[in-house]
Amino acid sequence: MKALVIARNDALKNLLAYHLKPLGFEVTYFSDPVKALEELERLEPEMILASAVDFPRHWKTLARVLREKRSKEECVFVLLAGSLPFEEAAKATHLGVNGIVGADLSDRQQVRQLAQLYRRYRSVKDQRRFQRLVPTAEERLQLVFVHPRSSVIITGSLSEISIQGAGFKPAEPESTADLRRGEEIPLATLRVGEDLVTLVCQVSRNRGELGLQFSSFEPGGHHKLFRYIRSRSKRELQQAMARAVPES
After folding, report:
1. Which domains does the chain possess?
2. Cα separation of 26 and 38, whole Å?
3. Model-level pTM?
4. Fewer CB atoms inside 10 A, N or C side of the chain?
5. Pairing mode, if any, of strands 156-162 and 165-170?
6. Residues 114-139: pLDDT tens digits?
């Protein structure tokens, strides 16, 4: 899937890449809306995000040209704007803009709104949410955390993991028996291949095996986990080749 970002703000571009790439988007950037217009037909993006702050006039031309050839379901057009006067919002509706999202994508609410807007029109699966991995003995995945009240270091094994959370079997179940649903675990470290990723998680269930929901990662941490989960088939192939015995 392709997403076209038309903006001058580098911080905004980086935030969009951070949120869109794990969803499976190949992100292309343009700081020149005229150039973006020229490349529109060749690129055929599934989503366009245009900054109304950077280009208060050009987004209208982009939307009009886009809707001459592609419907709101074929290509989702999202306007990034802090706020729009009523007249501008009415123009956006008339020109076939799918939705308007706040330009501050460091706000999680705005990110959720963007994802919901896209799924509403395209019904795209959020790969970060649905792709899960059941670790094998060969997987280099391990979670360790500090009990939020007793400060005891908790070790164990992962029964399953996704970018959203994990099932965790503590080595000593009695050490986590008092953890309650909804309780935050602020000090946790996840080994992902050769990397160590710090994160914050929350208890979603405790029936001997813990259900943990990941609340936040260190910068870049969730991308490392997502890539590791996605590359499982490649690792299995490499392991099979390593085990293969050459014929004599």
Report:
1. 2-124 (3.40.50.2300), 130-239 (2.40.10.220)
2. 19
3. 0.49
4. C
5. antiparallel
6. 777 777 776 543 444 446 788 888 88
